[in-house]
Amino acid sequence: MQDETSETVCPVARSVGVVGDKWTILVLRELYMGMTRFEEIQIQTSATPQMLTSRLKALEADGLVERRPYQEKPLRYEYQLTAKGWDFYPVIYALRAWGEKWCKDEDEGLAMHFVHRACGHDVGVASVCPNCGVPVERKDLQPSISERFLAERTARREAFKGK
What we know:
Blueprint: H1 11-19, H2 22-32, H3 38-45, H4 49-61, E1 65-71, E2 76-81, H5 83-86, H6 89-102, E3 112-116, E4 141-145, H7 147-161
Helix pairs in contact: 2-3
GO molecular function: DNA binding
Keywords: DNA-binding, Transcription, Transcription regulation
Organism: Pseudomonas frederiksbergensis
């Protein structure tokens, strides 16, 4: 998309022009967690329908997501990450690691656990497996959600149904 950041050669400024707001980051988080339908994403991000629609359209225009029909009558779409969208995952992973360290109480524990598929050890918030020393990517990790985070997400879903 064309915006004021296209006037600079700075890759940080250009990147922020594409993904530099809370709602876009939360939408991407949900897509990485396997949520592909509008309502699911709305429930977990707490975005208004208008906010979510604008972010999904922008992500689609920027080539990070593709909209695909999953139902014909009525016509409904789901959103899938493209290769460009998956390439943003290390940024989300780094935000997670930073947030686990600086944005919560020590006694809370990790919200998500990632186990290195090759050796079976939890990598914590590292991008290199602390057990075998191998750099890990999303495809190398088996995610599991903590009970506390799962309860939070379930409560959001229940509250949404009650509206």
